[in-house]
Design a protein that fits this description.
Oligomer: single chain
Number of strands: 3
Largest sheet: 3 strands, antiparallel
Structural class: mainly beta
Strand content: 35-45%
Strand order of the largest sheet: 1-2-3
Order of helices and strands: EEE
Radius of gyration: 20 Å
Helix content: under 10%
Length: about 80
């Protein structure tokens, strides 16, 4: 099951209502573990999982900070129009 964070923004005018929601996921780790020797090697971690300890920004699988994981943002915008009566 995928966890998702939903943010809803609403702007109301007399005729339209706009709603947007964003789903943010942190997927594979892109930290280059061989950068100090001039190479390229990643650890193979496929998805960020927050560690259960005091630091929620550290991945429980690979130990890297969340910033090393690629961020995926899915945004959905819904606009409804109701004509004046």
């Amino acid at each position: 099951m995928k966890k998702r964070q939903v943010v809803v923004k609403q702007r109301k005018s007399s005729y339209t209502t706009t709603s947007s929601s964003s789903n943010i996921r942190y997927v594979e780790c892109q930290k280059n573990h061989a950068a100090n020797i001039g190479g390229y090697a990643v650890d193979g971690c496929r998805e960020f999982m927050a560690s259960g300890g005091g630091d929620a920004l550290t991945c429980a699988a690979c130990g890297c900070h969340r910033n090393f994981h690629r961020r995926e943002v899915e945004t959905e915008v819904v606009c409804e129009y109701s004509p004046p009566t």
